[in-house]
Design goal:
The protein is built from nine helices and twelve strands. Helix 3 packs across helix 4 and helix 4 packs across helix 5. It is globular, with a radius of gyration of 21 Å.
Length: about 325
């Protein structure tokens, strides 16, 4: 079932996206290997949808979001926004795409220039992208600040004069200033107090409804994802291991890694007994990933085939996508 306003037309299509960081050693800094931060990721996001990427820290979620927006260069693959080639765009085409594709960073303080007032920071973006000029800049700045729950006079303040929640509202306002249609929300509440997190989540939902926004929501908090997302993609060691509609994912996760993640969600009712799945060992290094299935070194159901054959992300009869030999046995 799609969320209200969601269409069948993909706003964003990602195909075999790869981002490898070179490892340089020695006096001559020769490349002796690569850190495979994102390794062959493919998915679609539809108009009006919130697609969540989840997983442990270091699994490649944030790098995926930044590579999609070309904040970091891709090693390979394709990204299409409404049919336009993002990775191949240059000059004026990329400028136009950047108006439509924005990001909300995890740490609102480091995302803002401490030497610039909030109004100057947002106004600079409007001028660079020729969205407004003259008196229109101030009007637009105050408009987006108020829309994000701040006051118009806040435009004269510096970042250090705001609380953490207010700074995140400023970052959201800056992203909203260019009237984007697609926003990468990179762990937008993880740096905030718990008491403030729900306010920012509610703001993101209100803005999505008002401006028909499409989100790539990156998070490690599955409780928040359950509230925000329409579909969920689980990443492990740079790869997507499961993609499913939210209700189906929380009702019946198919990948052992997803099952372990969901078992770790705290239950508020002390009378409810929940079986916790404890994974053994640590996440392998992306600089030296294991052969076969990347999860086989920690999987409680590992088989011989898992150690040698990498499973493909295949679809089940219910539309659930999973990369696991338990679900799709090798014939």
């Amino acid at each position: 079932m799609s969320a209200p306003g969601v269409t069948d037309v993909p706003v964003l299509s990602v195909r075999d996206l790869r981002k490898y960081f070179p490892i340089r050693t020695g006096v001559l800094s020769r490349v002796t290997g690569h850190v495979k931060a994102v390794d062959g990721v493919s998915f679609d996001i539809h108009a009006g949808e919130t697609f969540a990427l989840v997983g442990e820290s270091g699994c490649g979620k944030s790098t995926t979001g930044r590579t999609i927006l070309r904040l970091t260069g891709a090693t390979g693959g394709e990204v299409f926004y409404q049919g336009e080639d993002v990775l191949g765009a240059s000059g004026e085409r990329m400028r136009r795409l950047r108006k439509a594709m924005q990001i909300v960073f995890q740490d609102p303080y480091s995302a803002l220039n401490p030497r610039m007032t909030v109004g100057a920071a947002i106004g600079e973006i409007l001028r660079v992208h020729r969205k407004a000029a003259g008196a229109e800049v101030r009007e637009r700045v105050e408009e987006v600040l108020v829309r994000c729950g701040l006051e118009s006079y806040h435009s004269w303040r510096y970042p250090h004069e705001f609380s953490g929640g207010q700074r995140q509202r400023v970052v959201i306002a800056r992203a909203l200033a260019l009237d984007p249609r697609f926003i990468v929300a990179d762990e937008p509440i993880s740096a905030l107090d718990v008491s403030i997190q729900s306010q920012i989540i509610n703001l993101l939902e209100e803005l999505q409804d008002s401006f028909q926004l499409t989100y790539l929501f990156i998070s490690h908090d599955l409780s928040v994802v359950r509230h925000m997302a329409d579909r969920v993609g689980v990443m492990y060691l740079g790869k997507l291991v499961e993609v499913a509609e939210k209700r189906e994912f929380y009702r019946q996760p198919l990948h052992p890694y997803s099952q372990a993640l969901l078992s770790a969600i705290p239950v508020s009712d002390p009378t409810v007994k929940k079986k916790r799945i404890i994974l053994q060992g640590d996440v392998p290094s992306p600089a030296n990933p294991p052969s076969g299935c990347p999860f086989h070194t920690r999987c409680p159901y590992v088989m011989d085939v898992c150690r040698t054959v990498s499973p493909q992300l295949l679809q089940t009869e219910t539309g659930h996508q999973v990369a696991c030999h338990l679900v799709h046995p090798v014939t």
